[in-house]
Amino acid sequence: MLTYDLSARGSTPRYEYLYRCLRRDILSGALASGARLPSKRALAEHLGVSVITVEAAYSQLVAEGCVESRPRRGYFVLARAMPGGFEPEPAASRPQPVWRLDLRSNRVDAALFPSGVWAKLTRRVLAENPDALLEGAPHEGLPELREAIAAYLRGYKGMAVSARQIVVGAGAEFLYLMLAQLFSGAAFALENPGYPKIRLAYSASGALCLPVELDAQGVNPGSLRRSGAGVLHISPAHQYPTGLVTPLPRRQELLRWAESTGGYIVEDDYDSELSYAPRPLPTLSSIDGAGRVIYVNTFSQTISPAIRIGYLVLPERLLDEWERRLGFYSCAVPSLEQHVLARFISGGGYERHLARLRKISRERRDSVLAAFAASPFAGRIEIAEPGAGLHFLMRVRTNQSDDALRSRAAELGLRLGFLSDYAFDARRVEQHTLVINCAGLDSERLKEAVSLLGRVLEDEIA
Amino acid sequence: MLTYDLSARGSTPRYEYLYRCLRRDILSGALASGARLPSKRALAEHLGVSVITVEAAYSQLVAEGCVESRPRRGYFVLARAMPGGFEPEPAASRPQPVWRLDLRSNRVDAALFPSGVWAKLTRRVLAENPDALLEGAPHEGLPELREAIAAYLRGYKGMAVSARQIVVGAGAEFLYLMLAQLFSGAAFALENPGYPKIRLAYSASGALCLPVELDAQGVNPGSLRRSGAGVLHISPAHQYPTGLVTPLPRRQELLRWAESTGGYIVEDDYDSELSYAPRPLPTLSSIDGAGRVIYVNTFSQTISPAIRIGYLVLPERLLDEWERRLGFYSCAVPSLEQHVLARFISGGGYERHLARLRKISRERRDSVLAAFAASPFAGRIEIAEPGAGLHFLMRVRTNQSDDALRSRAAELGLRLGFLSDYAFDARRVEQHTLVINCAGLDSERLKEAVSLLGRVLEDEIA
Q1: Taking chain A, what is the end-to-end CA distance rounded to the nearest angstrom?
Q2: Most C-beta atoms within 10 A of its C-beta, which of A197, A214, B29, B227?
Q3: pLDDT at residue A80 tops 80
Q4: What's residue A279's pLDDT?
């Protein structure tokens, strides 16, 4: 059995120390590729720590790709990933599958974007301001764009922000990397289940990622406190994939956690623009009196994945620290796109586009719910969390595993997403819960979706 | 005196263990902000390690902004930088200076870029392929652009690369972050002196950065081996700021280091496009038979800082590993720019632009050297390393410190760069050596440069 002296950990948290010990032994080869790690319970008993401690350490190793979790078999060491020893497998051709229909992707339907308006603005910027091509932007983004974003947030979301708090970056993922660097050394608490890219980006940056459990109101404060994390990353407006909306009292409780521990909250508002709730709740950022919230949002979700522009709203207290530690980075968004987007927002084009997008999204979602309710499989499904947003959970009564359903769907060219895909540990999440994304389901594709889903669910009766 | 038990470090290198101990105590507050650290020699003796070990640990803390090196006074702890304790200073307004003339910036003169051609190509892409705005690119970049870059490297640099080895990213800094993640856990050996942003980007990603000394042929293999690094980042074609060109035998020696240790070399070819040497040496990447070299280059340097597009050439052996670990990132370069750049390269516009840029760069540089030789201060300067490229070193005979010269120049609106600005430890680099960048010196600005430099150097005689 693995033995580490946890009393030598100094002020390092137990899980982090254990994780570092395991990682060192994997990277050095002391734990060979393919070796099976002890079960969480066994190692916890052996070391005299809690199962949660072992789980946090294992989760981080899984997230970093050092260890693999195999359902019902346990945890296994993967090939070492460090220079000085790492020898990857020879390259094999792995063709990407082409899906007939993708219910897993949460990308907005790019066909809805007014590309003509954007192209016209681009031509206009080129004609009126040819230097836009050549002038580098300040590292935090073009002043015009930061002002346009701040005005949008003030007018549309009631956030009292100024342009100097805005940092423009090349998409949300890039900004996650910057936050990992700003808070280097801190452990990040992430929603479990949650959006996998968030965990991948923080983990790839070397941050320790800790799962926190959700209850009916969102992140559970007890689970958060027990995690010992310094930074919490959440999507209180519309959690992915559960669809949970965090009510105001819970938001205030999370803010109190940040204040009392000196922690920070990253509020990821990735799809609030598409929410059609009658009265959206105030953002955490706007009720944060103590400067503990960093707000993050992206235009890739509402405009097009081809235009990767995201932004942060930093609290005043972090402006100097950001400048001092990350001010050396150049702004990675081309100046041309920044000029065009600034005009698109300040000219009202963005709000018009969002209004149309919300209307169509709501219609699509209503059509999907109606079509599923009228389908042959209506009696075997239950729609959960049908709140505002473009995705919902659908529980299926079935005697098959998620993997069997997924494979059968894939044979038909249908890509399905399951709640278990979004969990730190798939084995601890309920099976048979699909995450249905409506974004791409126009009327034609919806018909196909009902037909294909019907075949997947039928099959398993036989 | 600080006491750490280095025998508890397991397989962690001494410098890394010491660095982690110090960092932990700084972040926890055990070492208070403002505290003076022991001298390197004293701590080395106390702990029974070499001065190099302490120096590597201190350098990393300085690079991360946890510790400050004050000339002739020593090393001091800076404010803590971690959530759960970190309280930054209140924001102060720090206006950026506006320079009358900047001899430190190595940015190419953007006015030389054919912005009309680029704008025309942009309009053409928008007209012929309006979907270019909407279609997201694969995470490694658009196939057209990767093919165009590969063809350029084959034709122009004689590199036998295929499009599948190319990864397009939002500028070189972004690609450094990706490399830090690909090689997470490895220590990075960096040229000392060298380009500060490279160290800042790797350090901010949590990588341990180790200085390796340069001799007349570039990176010293002995210093490299002693560093114990897993990855070496170098610019063999034209080192910044020394201007050193690494000759072929040394290149081969560095490749042997990588092969024998299982390490990797990041070959940063940032300004080889502007080299006007008659016969450029083959890149490390093209003489690397073992797949240990990652080639990196950028268009921000040759086109405009407003267009942040860089690329890597990965060796075949790393393609799968890259895909597996970093394939989740979206390509952060807008598809429109990728289409335009692909046409600019494959249509020959890029090569025509480079040819013109090289001619003008050479003329500017020759004019600068001639003007300095004919200046009143000609007798007090010595030009070093006048090889190919846009910058050179200039040694000045003076009785003033670099800081005094820098302040006096700043009063006149002249920004100067010194060799000591680029060193891990400024105290160990020779004083009075300026790094002169010619990129922006057209004939008018050159006259001003001579006049202002004359005043700076005159002053100090008095």
Answers
A1: 46
A2: B227
A3: no
A4: 65
Q: What is the mean pLDDT of residues B432-440?
A: 88
**What whole-number distance in Å separates Cα of residue A177 and Cα of residue A401?**
36
Block residue for tokens 């982090």:
A16
User: Are A330 and B308 inside 8 Å of each other by CB?
Assistant: yes
Q: What is the per-residue pLDDT across A253-297, written as a single tens digit (0 to 9) for each?
A: 999 999 999 999 999 998 778 776 666 788 999 999 999 999 999
What top-level class would CATH report for the domain B101-106+352-461? alpha beta
**HSE (side-chain half, CA atoms, 13 Å) at A127:** 7
Distance of CA B98 to the CA centre of its chain: 24
How large a percentage of chain A has pLDDT more than 90?
Answer: 47
pLDDT category of residue A372 using cuts at 50, 70 and 90? very high
Q: B162 by DSSP, 3-state: which?
A: coil
CB–CB contact B332 A177 (8 Å): no
Residue B320 contacts A, CB cutoff 8 Å: yes
Lowest mean pLDDT among A85-94, A415-424, B160-169, B267-276: A85-94
Cβ-defined contact of B132 to A64 (cutoff 8 Å): no
Q: Which fold has domain B112-347?
A: Aspartate Aminotransferase; domain 2 (3.40.640)
Contact between B82 and A337 using a beta-carbon 8 Å cutoff: no
Spell out which residues of chain A touch residue B24, defining contact as CB-CB under 8 Å: 10-12
The secondary structure element, H or E, covering residue A192 is strand A187-192
- Closest-CA residue of A relative to B329 is A173
Q: Which of residues 353-412 of A touch B (CB under 8 A)?
A: none
Q: What ranges do the domains of chain A cover?
A: 6-77, 101-106+352-461, 112-347
pLDDT digit string (tens) for B148-192? Answer: 999 999 988 889 999 999 999 999 999 999 999 999 889 999 999
Q: Which residues of B touch A136 (CB under 8 A)?
A: 107, 110, 304-306
Q: Which amino acid is at A356?
A: R
Contacts with B, A 125-144, CB within 8 Å: 126, 130-137
- Asked if A184 lies within 8 A of B201 by C-beta distance, the reply is no
Q: CB of B34 within 8 Å of any CB in chain A?
A: no
Distance from CA of B111 to the nearest CA of A (A): 8
Give the helix/strand (H/E) hosting B396: strand B391-396
Indicate the burial class of A53 (C-beta count within 10 angstroms; 0-12, 13-18, 19 or more).
buried
DSSP state of A395: E
Average pLDDT, chain B: 86
B181 interfacial to chain A (CB closer than 8 Å): yes
Burial of B137 (0-12, 13-18, 19+ CB in 10 A): buried
Residues 423-462 of A with CB under 8 A from B: none
Residue predicted with more confidence, A234 or A3: A234
Does A320 contact B at CB distance below 8 Å?
A: yes
Across A406-435, average pLDDT: 86
The domain over range B6-77 is classified in CATH as 1.10.10.10: yes
Nearest by CB: A133 against B23, B181, B306: B306
Instruction: Give the number of other CB atoms < 10 A from CB of residue B248.
Output: 13
* Interface residue B81 vs chain A (CB under 8 A): yes
DSSP H helices in B158-247: 172-182, 196-204, 221-227
Whether the pLDDT of residue A166 is over 90: the answer is yes
Q: Do A137 and B306 touch (CB under 8 A)?
A: yes
Longest CA–CA separation in chain B, Å: 71
3-state DSSP assignment of residue A367: helix
- The mean pLDDT of A85-112, rounded to a whole number, is 62
CA distance B17 to B47: 12
The pLDDT of residue B234: 97
In angstroms, the CA A165 to CA A147 distance is 10
Least confidently predicted of A28-42, A132-146, B119-133, B148-162: A28-42
